[in-house]
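Field reference: sequence -> structure
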Amino acid sequence: MVKNRIAHLRKARGLTQQALAKLAGTSQQQVQRIEAGVQGAQLELALKISAALGAELPDVFPSLDPKPKKGLRDSRYFIDSAKLREAGLDPDPKSWTVKFFAFDGRVFEYVVPSDEKDRLEKIFSRTGEGIVVFSARTHWVAINQNRIAATQFLFDLGVSFEDEKEEKLELRLHLISAEQPIVFGIEPDTLLLEEDDDGSASQMQNLFSQLETGFVNEMVDFYDEDRERVYLMPTQMLVVEVPVVCCEPALWNAEVEESLEGQRGSAQSRDDRK
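Structure field:
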């Protein structure tokens, strides 16, 4: 997880995530993911967030060199790509989208960070088989490489700032033999997999870990929102999609905290009016 000081600086200025997103010209969900440290920010967006917070880039992303040299695109920073990634920034000025074309004509499209784009391009540029797991901007995804006929990598220059719809807490299972996905309500993970003794609070991470191991002929399982068990045969799946908020405990816990703060703020406003 990448740490930054966005939440601290935002609260010090009395800004909500929604207000900061508006000032930076992006979506609240994107601010949530970057603030929680589960997703890197493209450099252009990081500069906009820093400006909205009235801070310099190294003040917001403290692992950056506080005395950078001139030369980068905004004429203030010159930091190599590895250092930017380490600080939680994506140095690529392009926004990448990957499209998967299944044998049956279905198309799956995801916005991905540049490092995931590079990894996926290496995988899908050669013949392979098995389940490929990756992190998109809004979802964790597992895809059956055996059933993909073509893969396309598209880019747009600059940062995409479009609004995002609120994702439901559900797992969408696309089968090879069915056009419509099967949908299961799920509970978000609240602990990291390595910190969860019995696995009950990190089951989505565990599910993707099972799928990534490559034992495609073995059943994998998870519990739905009603604690009813679901078994899945990887060889029969085409795609599994789970919102990133369900897989990243830091993001879910931050979202819960933000909601509680909003409720406390509303309660305080009511008390002040009495």
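Note: Residues 71-76 have pLDDT under 50 and may be disordered.
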